[in-house]
Write a structure and sequence with these properties.
172 residues, Porin, 8-stranded antiparallel β-barrel
């Protein structure tokens, strides 16, 4: 069904007084990873890089630290779908870039962002180390923007810079 399956965790940091006057947004990510490669397996082995479509269902915990030091415990969940392009630097190491978006729900409500239905958009890059038996370790950095696309007001959005660590397995 999928060519690659895995799990990613990570953490982020968002602090923008214009969109989040309440303080600092700090998400912790728990994401599944499911990808279908757009090149057939026999071409992938010879290709310098290969494109893929991915899905990342996720449930994330977040804290909002207010300027007076109070910690608010929040959560978000949803699914991101996107496109990832891998580039082979060696048989055991690839770098990648990705872009994705998808519907989410957030529990935090700020002065400039309504809680509830939002979109999560991300752009990122990273590295993927290949081990025996089609197993990989992945490290990456992403920039993420969450807002509700002007469907509800207020819609100032929340931006976060994120670091991710994960594992995946090539099924084929």
């Amino acid at each position: 069904m999928f060519d690659e399956v895995g799990f990613t965790t990570g953490f982020g940091f968002g602090s923008n007084p214009q969109s989040l006057p309440e303080g600092t947004y700090r998400p912790v990510y728990f994401m599944g990873y499911f990808a279908n490669h757009l090149l057939k397996e026999e071409y992938r082995k010879e290709a310098w890089g290969f494109p893929m479509f991915y899905m990342e269902p996720q449930f994330n915990l977040a804290t909002v630290q207010t300027p007076d030091g109070e910690l608010l415990q929040e959560f978000e969940f949803g699914i991101n779908n996107g496109f990832k392009q891998s580039f082979r630097l060696a048989d055991f190491f690839h770098i990648f870039i990705l872009v994705g978006s998808g519907p989410h729900y957030i529990s935090v409500e700020t002065v400039k962002q309504k809680k509830g239905f939002i979109f999560s958009d991300c752009f990122g890059a990273g590295g993927q180390w290949f081990f025996k038996n089609n197993f990989t370790v992945n490290l990456g950095f992403r920039i993420r923007h969450m807002s509700n696309a002007e469907l509800f007001y207020p819609n100032g959005g929340i931006n976060a810079y994120n670091y991710h660590f994960g594992f995946s397995y090539f099924v084929k």
